[in-house]
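To: structure desk
From: M.T.
Subject: fold request, one chain
Message: Could you run this one when you get a chance? Sequence is below, nothing fancy, just the single chain.
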Amino acid sequence: MSLSYVPAPAPARSIRAEWFSNPRADILAGIVVALALIPEAISFSIIAGVDPKVGLYASFSIAIIIAFAGGRRAMISAATGAMALVMVPLVRDHGVQYLFAATILAGLIQLAFGLLGVAKLMRFIPRSVMTGFVNALAILIFTAQLDHFVGGGMIVYAMVAVGIAIIYLLPKVTTVVPSPLVAIVVVGGAAAIFKLVVPTVGDMGELPSALPSLALPDVPFAWQTLTIIGPVALTLAIIGLLESLMTAQLMDDITDENSDGDRESRGQGIANVATGFLGGMAGCAMIGQSMINLRSGGRTRLSTLTAGIGLLILILVAGSVVSAIPMAALVAVMIVVAISTFQWNSIKLSTLKRSPRSETAVMVVTVAVVVVTHNLALGVLAGVILSAIFFARRVAHVVEVTDIVDTDEVAGSDAGTRVYSVTGELFFASTNELVHSFNYYEETPYVIIDLSQAHIWDSSAVAVLDTVVAKFARHGTHAEIIGLNEASSAIHERLSGHLESGH
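Reply: Done. Structure tokens follow.
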């Protein structure tokens, strides 16, 4: 009897690819991320004006939930600085319970965004904005480390340098263990053996000693509460979704994979709703930690789950050990992440010479706004708006009107007929000068405006065409529009004669 190979069912193959195709590297990478999450979560809690446990509860809760519900494997989500900045006025004016309520509402909004397919709007973010986003984030990651080691003395500088050297050089010898994890162990071990007095993770804040419990936010269930938390929740939902989707896109580019934006939006929503009930702050994808995960070998959802569970174990079981880890070790990891995240090719002189000036300007503006405001969403918004302006200006000048002298070129034209051929996309920005492109004073009884090489996009174009026809009529010339495609004809027939042109 011969035996033949029977492949595993598709669901089994999918589960293996999503979870267990890279277990050893994923678990080790998750441990590295868990260690790096602790000071970050504490820092973001301080920024938001809440107890450190709020950020830590949020980080392990979101990481564990997003491992199952997220749309991108190996992406790390937790409490973030951009979200923390939005929370400051709410916590200051109304207290932490309103923050929990806003977190739940933000999650519900993100869940609705996911069901409505809002993630598809990501395709409208230009590459230059994406480059600016990544470079700005690298700068923010680097500058955020300065407070932890600048002015710390030669010992701290040496520890950071040793950590960076290990991260860069160890992979040349072996990749069995992630070099960031080795750097943390070596630097931490040296500090313990030689009893070095340096800033540690414990100096950032006290670690919690118990699990959080589910509870409703202690806020009035009233319309006034909604007016207080609503604007903050909407801002949190948009910023969180934007950062998560852009981080997923960056990781897709690095790993040559495709993420599910709508699933990610729903996953972020579910995670934030649950986190709000657990007494945590809203979070989203963390590009810095996600880059650490990728650099350490994490590739599947197991790495994200390990980071969440590892964080929980570290703060509850090994809190005293984690508190003793020198900040210099984690600073070294984050500096390397910042250096590897920055797209150095984008600022090479050869690249800048080849790239259109408008795209370079968009990238610079995106970086500048993010660095000044420390708000990634504002930087992306500024970049998208500037890109739209540049695009509108370019398109506005691609409409051409050609005066065809040989009237036999257009079917149906007679002797004495002037034919104008319009080429390009007709919309509000491109039609401003169109009305001045015709000769209304020529003694011609009949004019044909041929739009077979053009497309009408909006009411502004229809209004301008009505104006052109009316101007010819005032000078005794009958103008006829021909060559409309189906879509252009539909909008023209629906709107023509019903608009005020303003010319």
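Reply (cont.): Confidence is low (pLDDT under 50) at residues 1-6. Let me know if you need anything else for the meeting.
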